[in-house]
Amino acid sequence: MSYSQFLNRFNFKRLRLRSPQRLILAIVCFLGTVFISWYVMAQQPVTLRMLMPAPDIPPFQPLVEAFEEQNPGIRVELVEGPNQTNLVEDLYTSAFLLGDSPYDLVNMDIVWTPKFAAAGWLMDLTDDVSSDELAQYSPLDVEGGRYEDRLYRLPVRSDVGLLYYRKDLLEQAGLQPPETFADLMQASKQLQDSGAVPWGYIWQGRQYEGLVAMFVEVLQGFNGFWVNPDTLEVGLDRPETVEAINFLKSTVQEGVSPPGVTTYQEEDTRRFFQSGQAAFLRSWPYVWTLANAEDSELRGKVGIQPMVHEPGAKAGACLGGWGIGISTSTAHREEALQAAKFFSSFEPQRDLIISEGYLPSIQSLFTDPKVVAEYSHFPSLQEVANNAVLRPPIAQYAQASDILQRYLSAALTNRMSPEDAMQSAAAETQRLLDARG
Description:
With about 425 residues, the chain is of the alpha/beta class. The protein has 3 domains: about 5-40, no CATH class; about 45-160 and about 330-350, Periplasmic binding protein-like II (D-Maltodextrin-Binding Protein, domain 2, 3-Layer(aba) Sandwich); about 160-315 and about 395-435, D-Maltodextrin-Binding Protein, domain 2 (3-Layer(aba) Sandwich). It is built from 19 helices and 11 strands. The strands form 3 sheets. Strands 2-1-3-11-6 form a 5-stranded mixed β-sheet. Strands 8-9-7-10 form a 4-stranded mixed β-sheet. Strands 4-5 form a two-stranded antiparallel ribbon. Helix 10 (about 210-220) crosses helix 11.
């Protein structure tokens, strides 16, 4: 290309350049403009996006504001998702499958970690978080953020299944809180027979993830197991599993639980219990705050304890909770890591817990004076949380859960016998694991 052609291409003739000095001046001006534009763009705050269930956004927004105040160069945009957890998971999955996900931070239920990590959608945080930083958390909450011994999620809040009971009614009847499944049935029937409550025990029986969470607690209470993540052995066709199902069926057959319990989700059961229609409820820690609200009929009348179990077995408390991972498609890895560490740290967790009644993932918060002043029962829940039951951390968890939900629901609603349902569930689950093992 000749010198004149170069000038024509870049329209330098319009500048009527007559000397090399003027050409140099034009180039300097051009580069100066580019640099200024780049500098202005560089001063714009980085925006991190995170999808959350709609009800979780209002209590989380103060944490975002605190983070942005400390980090004026970073903004966090909370994208409102559906109320239902499984629909939020579907939206994340769709975004990742389409490529170039718009989300930098990934707000995750504990059971999503293996699926998202195995698919390559999450950044490996193992080398970004020190052992000292991890030591502050419950070991099980940390374990829930790992896949194949690598860390992909930082815990923001924990959750465990618990048994709620009407302590006022038990005291009036001279009853102790139940420890075994038989105790639960006996106390329920006694309170029902006395006219204290129309129903005894309420649990989540609808075909969805909440059914699985509830069932693993009963299964643990009968010394059973679902999937051994180390050996991939499936335990659904063992006698203990059938015993667990038969217990749940007996609550309906013997009139302790209403027939409609097999259609209930968490909020259905919470409202049922809080309106005074049942003596016992299996649910999550959030119920405590609502049951003891100023306008609640049960304010000051509710007790809480681990789930019941068979004599000689251990109580089961399904581990839930939420944490934050980082999308592999983000263009702002360092800023995203900074935000994830902040939201999972001591002060933000404490603010969220005091506001909403969630269980902490940081051990010291169970006995923190400010937390205990609001929730005096938290110290007694620390041991429950530390001995909780993890749903199997396998990459095929979503499919395995779907299998268990379908066959368990069929057994509970008398469409299949418990033995046939669990033999089919075990066989289908084993084929799933063998195919991808």
